[in-house]
Design goal:
This protein has about 250 residues and is an alpha+beta fold. The chain is built from 8 helices and 5 strands. Helix 2 packs antiparallel against helix 6. It is elongated and about 80 Å long.
Length: about 250
């Protein structure tokens, strides 16, 4: 395999920063990162297919890929609940299979991936500071022994250079999810409070008694408190309830 030098670290970091600035959301950034990875780590005569696996709360999934083939190759191993990419993420260690045809680590998976024309894989974990999240860069090739010592070093250097961008993307995603969860909780609280006020007015009862009625109806109907509360508001002619954020 040819041994072109990886782009200068400052160039790679600048590319990653540009991706963060130019993409509208985290998902789009990760897709562009996968394509960038495949492009920079491929060499003449050896196209590399790239997937990025993200594992959070023990659940793994391919969050980005350089193309449909890379995504399919990543997802093959999920049916077996193990494989080079999953192991790389779980154990935060590099996994390199030079030739699937001669490897017996995962016999059934090895056979299947070979049938799809892939002979070698290199999975390199991203160093993430968040213990709850783990990620790996998965590189596939149709050639046996495609990732020699120089190629492995280039992949590891690239992962180190790109890791800050990925850490920032994961952090943004976590903050976004937290904000969404908080917004949803506030919206639920609003409609429940409005429904409680309606019951208090109609039955001249206390706030606790009103809440107990809503909880009882929720339990009897086996539906969420918010659904019961919304029905109460609509039956009183209030219509949909909105939470206003300033």
């Amino acid at each position: 395999m040819e041994d072109p030098q990886l782009a200068e670290p400052t160039t790679v970091v600048a590319d990653i920063q540009d991706l963060l600035l130019d993409t509208p959301d985290v998902e789009a950034f990760l897709e562009e990162l996968a394509r960038h990875s495949a492009g920079i780590l491929s060499t003449p005569g050896n196209e590399v297919y790239c997937g990025i696996t993200l594992m959070r709360h023990r659940s793994a999934g391919t969050v980005a890929s350089s193309g449909e083939r890379a995504r399919m190759l990543d997802e093959l191993q999920y049916d077996f609940a193990d494989g080079p990419c999953l192991r790389s993420c779980r154990e935060v260690t590099q996994v390199h299979i030079p030739d699937f045809a001669k490897d017996n680590t995962w016999p059934e998976y090895n056979k299947l991936v070979t049938e799809h024309g892939i002979r070698s894989v290199l999975a390199v974990p991203f160093p993430l500071s968040d213990d709850a999240a783990r990620a790996g860069l998965n590189l596939y090739s149709e050639h046996a022994n495609a990732f020699d010592q120089a190629a492995v070093q280039r992949a590891n250097d690239y992962v180190q250079q790109a890791s800050k961008g990925l850490r920032l993307a994961v952090l943004i995603a976590e903050h976004s999810q937290t904000a969404n969860n908080l917004r949803a909780a506030m919206e639920s609280r609003t409609v429940i409070d409005v429904a409680t006020g309606i019951i208090i007015a109609q039955n001249r009862c206390t706030q606790q008694e009103a809440m107990d009625l809503i909880k009882k109806a929720s339990s009897n109907r086996n539906v969420k408190l918010r659904v019961v509360a919304q029905a109460i508001v609509e039956s009183a002619g209030g219509g949909p309830v909105q939470t206003y954020f300033k």
